């Protein structure tokens, strides 16, 4: 009887271990599939972006990044500059670095970059030092590529997400990664902005109620249009310096 109990216990442990392995493997496969899909979409989107860039008038503004960029539909601007949307939904920083390095265009007035949300999924352990280092390397590649294509590069903080996404997205990393972006810009390579300050709740990574759906904002124009209008009208010398984040979260 004792031997039987031992065998049953061992079998249960084996089943549980197999289950953990299965779900761990499934999670890994899902992550790999998402990465592959992001690269496939980036490959299909790049020719469209390049076609728009090649037709853009001189002094255009490039709007770069992930879905938080692609979902922004810029209004007609009084300064007359054209805005080319180069956002790629689903892009992580490594995927967008590859896109940025393949952009084909004459030099523009400015480039605005919003990137990082897709790096912050909790299952990716974004606060591990290795993940943070990869993020910085990728962002540096993107900024180098944009600096070669625009007189001014502005990098925004990472937008907040809906509170119900806190288990999917590491909301502490939203602030930590935004601080990394600010530090990169403090080295004189770009200007840092937080146009999303007004829609943040008390926690930096969480959006105010009604301001977002999932990981996306309800209204990108309300946050980004004032930034775009200011960048649009500025000279490169005015736009190149670091700007403190406007307002506060709370």
From TrEMBL:
Query: SGNH hydrolase-type esterase domain location, by residue?
Result: 80-217
> Known Gene3D superfamilies for this protein?
SGNH hydrolase
- What keywords were assigned to this record? Signal
Q: What are the recorded GO MF terms, alphabetically?
A: hydrolase activity, acting on ester bonds
Give the source's domain of life in one word: Bacteria
Which region is the signal sequence?
A: 1-26
Q: Does the entry feature the keyword DNA repair, yes or no?
A: no
Keyword set includes Signal: yes
Instruction: Give a Pfam family name.
Output: Lipase_GDSL_2
Q: What is this protein called?
A: GDSL family lipase
**Species of origin:** Alsobacter soli
Could you read off the lineage of the organism from its UniProt record?
A: Bacteria, Pseudomonadati, Pseudomonadota, Alphaproteobacteria, Hyphomicrobiales
């Amino acid at each position: 009887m004792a031997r039987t109990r031992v065998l049953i216990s061992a079998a249960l442990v084996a089943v549980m271990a197999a289950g953990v392995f299965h779900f761990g493997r499934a999670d890994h496969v899902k992550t790999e599939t998402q990465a592959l899909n992001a690269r496939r979409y980036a490959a299909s989107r790049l020719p469209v972006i390049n076609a728009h860039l090649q037709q853009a008038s001189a002094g255009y503004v490039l709007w770069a990044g992930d879905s938080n960029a692609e979902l922004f539909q810029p209004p007609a601007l009084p300064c007359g500059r054209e805005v080319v949307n180069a956002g790629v939904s689903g892009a992580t920083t490594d995927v967008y670095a590859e896109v940025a390095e393949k952009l084909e265009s004459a030099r523009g007035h400015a480039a605005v970059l919003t990137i990082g949300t897709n790096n912050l999924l909790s299952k990716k352990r974004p606060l591990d030092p290795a993940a943070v280092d990869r993020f910085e390397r990728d962002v540096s590649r993107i900024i180098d590529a944009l600096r070669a294509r625009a007189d001014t590069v502005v990098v925004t903080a990472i937008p907040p997400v809906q509170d119900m996404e806190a288990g999917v997205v590491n909301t502490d990393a939203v602030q930590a990664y935004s601080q990394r972006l600010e530090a990169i810009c403090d080295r004189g390579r770009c200007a840092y902005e937080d146009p999303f300050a007004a829609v943040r709740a008390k926690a930096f990574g969480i959006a105010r109620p009604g301001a977002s759906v999932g990981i996306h904002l309800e209204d990108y124009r309300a946050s980004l249009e004032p930034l775009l209008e200011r960048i649009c009208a500025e000279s490169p010398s005015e736009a190149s310096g670091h700007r403190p984040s406007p307002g506060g979260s709370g």
